Amino acid sequence: MATVDPQQPQELNIREQIARIDNLLIDSQKKQREYHLSVLQVMAAVFAGGAAFFAAGAAFVKLLAN
């Protein structure tokens, strides 16, 4: 938190606090986007892994059928 200087006008402290809040909001929004992107990346990896296991299983069944 900002320190209060008796010689500094109170208006500057309020502007400083508003700027800090704005920066925190921007950081929070960036982290939310990164989180959602990482969830999508995990989902894509799981789907790709599932497809690979399905293909391997199908190949194994085909190999056993011959």
Instruction: Determine the strand fraction and express it as a percent band.
Output: under 5%
For the largest beta-sheet, the strand count, sense and barrel status come to:
none
Number of domains: 1
H/E series, N to C? H
What is the mean predicted local confidence, pLDDT?
A: 87
The helix content is over 70%
Output the radius of gyration: 27 Å
Low-pLDDT regions = none
Helix-strand makeup class:
mainly alpha
Distance between the termini: 74 Å
Shape, per Cα inertia axes: rod-shaped
The number of distinct β-strands equals 0
Q: How many helical stretches?
A: 1
What does this structure look like?
There is one protein chain. The chain has one helix spanning 10-65. The protein has 66 residues and is mainly α. 0% of the residues are buried. 85% of the residues lie in helices and 0% in strands. The model has no long low-confidence stretch (mean pLDDT 87). It has one domain. The protein has one helix and no strands.
Write the topology of this structure.
Layout: H1 10-65
Write a brief structural summary.
This protein has one helix at 10-65. The chain has 66 residues and is mainly alpha-helical.
Which features characterize this protein?
mainly alpha, 0% strand, 66 residues
